[in-house]
Design goal:
Number of domains: 1
Strand content: under 5%
Largest sheet: none
Number of strands: 0
Radius of gyration: 17 Å
Order of helices and strands: HHHHHHHHHHH
Distance between the termini: 18 Å
Number of helices: 11
Helix content: over 70%
Oligomer: single chain
Mean pLDDT: 77
Length: 212
């Protein structure tokens, strides 16, 4: 299966991506500010379930193709890296508009609806889709076989980290609503730093190859 070194490297790269405020994190924080801690944590669970659906889809649909084709791997990697850089540039350019996402008030929904909305955001998150499709295959040890199983295991690692990180975001936002709402500059700083980090991640993905 996946070696400890690969697992730790994947966990580190996953953490780097997860801590960047993307669509899922913004949705969790917005829900926390509008509806409180319980809604935020329910949203996190929905996001995590949606993200793991992406893991399964990538593992079943991409694993065998990537295993056989160096060209497919390279194209997928470069497209994913380019999109990560695009998202990073977009985040930097739009960093001053983040305040609106945190100050919106909305009606309170039931737990199932909140869970479902979190699931939809998680499964439709372009940042996560690109990461799983372009980065996940790079950490699979093809010589050990069981490519699909390795991807599913790596996906569990990613989602455990995401569950913990997004929960911290949600609880922090619910606890410090007024602090966030009072300072658009703080939000702009978070968005700008996150965008630059995402650009760096995209460059790293593009520069990382696999040995055959």
């Amino acid at each position: 299966m996946v070696s400890t070194d690969r697992l730790m490297a994947f966990a580190a790269m996953s953490l780097l991506l997860i801590v960047i405020p993307g669509p899922s994190v913004l949705f969790v924080i917005g829900r926390a500010l509008a509806q409180g801690r319980r809604a935020a944590l329910t949203t996190v669970v929905g996001n995590t379930l949606g993200a793991y659906v992406l893991v399964v889809a990538v593992a079943l649909g991409v694993g065998s193709l990537v295993e056989r084709s160096i060209l497919a791997f390279t194209v997928l990697k470069l497209v994913g890296a380019a999109y990560l850089v695009y998202l990073g540039v977009k985040a930097v350019r739009q960093r001053k508009s983040l305040h609106a996402a945190f100050t919106g008030e909305g009606p309170t929904h039931g737990s199932l609806r909140t869970l479902g909305e979190g699931f939809v955001v998680g499964v439709a998150n372009p940042k996560t889709i690109v990461f799983f499709a372009a980065v996940l295959p790079q950490f699979v040890d093809r010589g050990q076989g069981h490519v699909t199983a390795q991807m599913l295991l790596l996906g569990v690692v990613f989602n455990v980290i995401a569950l913990a990180s997004d929960s911290v975001w949600g609880v922090a936002a619910a606890t410090t609503r007024n602090w966030f709402a009072r300072s658009p500059q703080r939000l702009a700083l978070i968005g700008g730093a996150g965008g630059l980090t995402m650009i760096g991640l995209g460059v790293t993905v593009a520069a990382t190859g696999r040995k055959d």
